[in-house]
Specification:
alpha+beta, Inorganic Pyrophosphatase, four-stranded mixed beta sheet
C-alpha cells in the first residue's frame, strides 16, 4: 500500500476536497443532515467538523439528504444569476440529493448527478438549493432533469426550504421560487466554482 496516496489529516470538507469527478454535471456532496435528523447540523467553517446549529423547533424535517458542494462559494457571480438577490450568502453551494436507499448518517461524501435547482432568497441573499440524484441509485439514478421528478416531491422540497428556518409564531424571511432545470443548475455550479476561486485563491 502506498501511504503517500492519502492525506495524513482529515481534509476540510469545503476547502480540502474536489468539487467532484465531473463538475458541473457530477459533483461531490458532503452530507450535513439527513431526513432522520431532528437537529440541524452545519459544517463549521473553521474546523471542518459538523457542529450542532440548532434543534428543530417545529415538525419540519428535510425530505432528502442535504449538504454542500466542496470548493463552491455563493458570491457576486451566483447572486447575479438570481433575480432580486442583493448578494450571495457567502457560504458553499447547498445541495439536496435524492436516494431510494436510506442514508441515515451525515458526515459522509457521495457522488451526485445534478438535475436542477430551487432558487431561494434568504433575507435578500441568494441561497440556491441544487437538486441531484445519487449516482447509480436504483430509483432516481436515471433522472437527468428536475422535470422528470414527481411534482409532489418538488412541492415538499419548496415547502421545507420556505419554512425550515422559521421559528414558531414567526413569519418566514425566506422566499422560494420556481425550480430551474439541469442546464441552469450547472451554470450556477460553474459560477459558484468561479466565485470560490476569486474568494480563496
Amino acid at each position: 500500500m502506498n501511504t503517500k496516496s492519502y492525506p495524513r489529516s482529515r481534509p476540510h470538507p469545503w476547502h480540502g476536497l474536489d468539487v467532484g469527478p465531473d463538475p458541473p454535471s457530477v459533483v461531490y456532496a458532503f452530507v450535513e443532515i439527513t431526513p432522520f435528523d431532528l437537529v440541524k447540523y452545519e459544517l463549521d467553517k473553521e474546523t471542518g467538523y459538523l457542529m450542532v446549529d440548532r434543534p428543530q423547533d417545529t415538525s419540519s424535517l428535510p425530505p432528502a439528504l442535504y449538504g454542500i458542494i466542496p470548493q463552491t462559494y455563493c458570491g457576486e457571480g451566483v447572486a447575479a444569476l438570481m433575480q432580486g438577490a442583493d448578494e450571495g450568502d457567502h457560504d458553499p453551494l447547498d445541495i439536496v440529493v435524492l436516494s431510494e436507499r436510506s442514508i441515515s448518517r451525515g458526515d459522509v461524501l457521495l457522488r451526485a448527478h445534478v438535475v436542477g435547482g430551487i432558487p431561494t432568497l434568504d433575507h435578500g441573499h441568494s441561497d440556491d438549493k441544487i437538486i441531484a440524484v445519487l449516482e447509480d441509485d436504483a430509483l432516481w439514478g436515471s433522472v437527468t432533469d428536475i422535470s422528470e421528478l414527481p411534482q409532489g416531491l418538488i412541492t415538499r422540497l419548496q415547502h421545507y426550504f420556505a419554512t425550515y428556518k422559521t421559528q414558531p409564531n414567526e413569519l418566514s424571511e425566506v422566499v422560494v421560487g420556481h425550480p430551474y432545470n439541469a442546464i441552469h443548475a450547472k451554470k450556477v455550479i460553474t459560477t459558484a466554482m468561479e466565485d470560490y476561486q476569486k474568494a480563496f485563491s
